[in-house]
Amino acid sequence: MENIEHFIEIGLALSKEKNHQVLLEQILLSAMALSRADGGTIYSVNDEEQLVFDTLINKSLNIHWGGTTSHKIEIPAINIYQYQKPNKSALVSIAATTGKIINIEDAYHVKDYDVTAAKEMDKRTGYRTKSVLTLPMNNHENDLTGVIQLINAADSNNNVIAFDKKIERTIHALTSLAAVILTNKQLIDQMEELFGSFSRVIAYAIDKKSPYTGEHCRRVPEITMSLARACHEIKKGPLANFSLSDADFHELSVAAWLHDCGKVATPEYVMDKATKLETVFDRIELIIARFEVASLYISHHGKYDANEKLRKLKQLADDKAFIVNANTGSEFFDDAKINRVYQIAKHYKVTINGVTQPILSDDEVLNLITKRGTLNNRERQIINGHMDVTVDMLESLPFPKHLKNVPEYACGHHEKMDGTGYPKGLKRNEMSIPARIMAIADVFEALTANDRPYKPPKTLSQTIAIMDRMKENDHLDPDLYDVFIEEKVYLAFAEKFLDKKQNDL
Q: Taking each helix axis from N to C terminus, what angle separates 489-497 and 433-448, rounded to the nearest 10 degrees?
């Protein structure tokens, strides 16, 4: 009954503990308690097929190394194999390769195993190793997860005795239970690592498709996590009661890396559209060629006198320069400029291969009259549609409980606090704080990015001025934005990622 109670306590402790080092130490301490061993060592297996000393305890020598202590174990790892053959120079490596329990009554009177290392250790410490129990820790699939070795069992009078078969079975049961728990936790850790890597692979895929978008996917998590930490630590004002656990930070990090995953479905020519007329190539060169044809026509037309030719050629050159500049999308295109595009398209016609056509096609006019940036309305809808794809992708994934908020966090970075954002038109009170944090991070990165092909980067002062107005217009969360400014989250990011000329604050 005492052993059963002990196993219950051990099982509960092991199932709750998440730290791998603490788990191994608990297993060793439990094994020592059950067997009344004076000393013990627990080893884990590394990627090089070596047994690594994790925790070493000896009561008589007052030693407690590794595990939860600050005393690191400086003893080299033990090779499980030597020259591709089982290493027979250590009991723990023999147990690891054979899968068998090794129970020695007296280490100084054993012929079947090499215990030279134990004897040498005894000479240095003055200790006397007698009974030794070495057990491989194999999980339910018979995979080796570690080895445990116990030294000098004691009876009720503290006399050193052999580890009897009953104790051997008890410790074996303990190590089997522990191995399964360790395997489960390792699988969980590996799944977490796999999913974290998967989220980064999405960013890598986007990077290969559009390098600047890939950089955006890497920088937004930096800003997001910095602002989240600042909000977590501030402990005053509206955010005094806001806090995030390690699991919460991990969940937010995953969401930040996946926030633009829908862009894998966005056409490159739209994502990377550097000029208004760019598709697979920039069509401005075709228009320039048409202007050259028009210039040749004017220069060689017999009905124009010299002065009229010069006037018409100058006007043609001015109109060409205007169209070339309009194509850049670098400034706001007002109604007067839009009307001039229409007039140019209407005024000039060229004949190429016997076909007379306007110098600007209807589609070229449609793109050139774009008021802001380089994207026309249809292309803007395509870009905005990446959020619909993101929502569909993330909401279709069966996220485990500790990652269940990833879709909400990731899909909220284009929402505005007044409900005028997209894709769902959420208002501030309908969004979590982490989702609102991501909205600030996304805006800041987009404004300061110095690798966009379609716009020059903003300086910090320009960016903060724009974001100040967004706060005033109820587009950004005011409390979170205040932390962003007061805790200088923007400045730490700028020093790491922005060009020096952008950092004008």
A: 40
